[in-house]
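Explain this protein:
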Amino acid sequence: MRNPMLREEPRYEKAPVLPPNNREGILEWLQRSGKIVARQSTIALSEDEEEDIDDLFDDDDSDDAVVEED
């Protein structure tokens, strides 16, 4: 099997320096092509969603109280 990208170097000699890679990386390509979008740091919630979240964190434990009967 012949692969021109592979070559054998003598074991006890210094390896040659690799040439710089001038190819563009994936991040640079995404930024250049406009395919990457910065994430927004805030999330806008509707009033109903805010009320639902407030209900989840409500400190009123009266609904969860367990009554022991003797």
In short: The two ends are 84 Å apart (CA to CA). Residues 51 and 65 are 23 Å apart (CA to CA). Residues 47-56 form the longest helix (10 residues). The chain has a mean pLDDT of 76.
